[in-house]
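Sanity check. The docking grid for AR6 depends on where the pocket ends up, so I'm generating a full predicted complex first rather than guessing from homology. Inputs follow.
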Amino acid sequence: WALSGRSDERPPLYLHLLPRLHLCDERTRPRHHAEPSARLWRCRLLLERQRVDGGVEHTPCQTIGVMMLKPNVSKNEIVYFVGDITTLAVDAIVNAANCRLLGGGGVDGAIHRAAGRDLLAECRTLGGCETGAAKITKGYRLPARYVIHTVGPVYSGSASDAELLRSCYWNSLDLARAHELHTIAFPAISTGVYGYPKEAAAEIAIVTIREWFDEHPDAGVRVTIVSFSAQDDAIYQNIQRALR
Ligand code: AR6
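Predicted complex below; grid placement will be based on this.
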């Protein structure tokens, strides 16, 4: 009841509610609450008061506080997923965008299609994004709450490519942390239309994420590295094994 914020039902007593809130973690939360790592839930409670005449009075639904739940992600970790990033119910998915931030092909197109036109409308207000930088919008019709848009380098073979790609991962994680987001999914930035060699890009992704974890050991961030094909996932697995 507290999670859905419904005020049309008779609420449980405050004390009854506490154990229920306590149970609302990743495993037990109802399916329709697609916010696996939301850590702050606003507790809207009806206060039940015993009236002098013996009846019970319900104060209309009011916010009486914010309850901090145990974070679902307590340590930094990398997990791997093969499939469509737009299906993931995480705090934020990262978009491999272009500098104009007005949509495009590849994963960018898939994200805009799944999120709906409101995403494009918000993107128009952002004034574009430089290569290596990151900007955040809401997720709209996506299961993810936010989209972090970052612009990877167009592969040129010059030394700056690696530095810019690294910045994409680093700045996206910084932005997620600034918004208190704890589950973030990355596609293989720059490895499609922008032509970055997949092995080199995968190594930069894993090394950068690990270095960011080292610098923020208490961040409690779970990064999902998303591959669009099993072959791409095999590249990550090989690099992960080699780096261990
Ligand atoms: N889910 C996960 N990964 C995907 C998906 C998806 N739905 N679709 C594609 N990929 P790309 P870039 C993978 O070309 O190279 C756009 O037009 C794909 O297999 O999407 O950074 C933008 O507007 C590849 O491994 O991004 C820019 O103009 C990876 O996502 C430009 O492309 C990145 O491929 C950006 O190029």
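Relevant for the grid: The longest strand covers residues 62-68.
Also worth noting: Residues 1-50, 59-71 have pLDDT under 50 and may be disordered.
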